[in-house]
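User: Hi! I'm working on a homework problem where we have to compare a predicted structure to a textbook description. Could you give me the structure for the chain below?
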Amino acid sequence: MSPLAGVLADRHDRRRLLQVSHSIKILLTATFWAVAKYSNPDIWTLYGLIFLLGMIVTFDAPIRRGFVRVIVPDDLLLKAASLHTAVISVGRILGPAIGGILIGLFDTPACFLANTVCAILGLLLLYRITPLPFTANTSSPASNTFRAAISYAWRVREIRVPLIYLSITCTTVLNIEVVLPILVEQDLGGGSSTFSMLLVFFSLGSLLGSLGAAEQRGSGIPFHRMLVGFSLAALLLSWAPNTTLVVLSLILVGFLGGVFLGNANAKVQADVAPEYHGRIVAIYAMIFVGMRSIGSLFVGALAEFYSAPWALRASAVLNMVLVVVVVGIINFSEASSE
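Assistant: Happy to help. Predicted structure tokens:
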């Protein structure tokens, strides 16, 4: 769905596209609530609903990220893109907490009803936002394709480098949410409440990191240094002996991950040519979702056959090795071209 969303975002009004996707999201979340409240669904019904919701969320993500560009002027785009990442972190902090409260006070269907209400509020807010004047992409049909955007992303160093680092990190160490519940159950002896608490602290670190990225001046810290620090923090987490040190390590991991994601998102959005913006953001979303899906299988298998701490260590070490290799290749190619 991301390639389709990216092409449409470059050709059509993004606010209208978001209004359509939010309307469909309202229908799907309301269906979730009705099925959970008034029936006893089997697993295949849930899979089907999750698949449909996943399609619309995947379609929505690149348009929503790209919408930042049409509601703020170019001189504020870098900060706005980082703040967008920070807002996502806020949702990850509040979401588990509100979900736990709703389940405790009412039942699981109440969470789906709350999702429906949030989607309705999002749709109403879209009608209140006044975007900058929409200018359709009038370039040649050949350059309007998704393939042309992939070629553009590879040619432009400022786009290519953060996307490569994003691919590596999403495949390796950016899958802590997969390992965390296993770590809670097997190593800390906790349950769902402990997992929710740790997820909140992890998201809090991500929020602080994203806000830090928004306040950066100049070129900031190189991506490879951010990722080496991120990997070292993940190694520290894997050796944390108790819940207190796990919490502190998670805040650090979330912070460094938030710094990297905030900077990568801002860099890609700020440096891309306007006519390619929607499709490049779609490529970013594809990498973020798709490579994490692949990486979660890799990390999950390690956690199952060995342990959660060893899965963290292996993914962190692999991330550092691949980052060092990429740095060497980039330096060699740039030296050769000179």
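For your comparison, note the following. The two ends are 40 Å apart (CA to CA). The CA atoms of residues 300 and 306 lie 10 Å apart. Good luck with the assignment!
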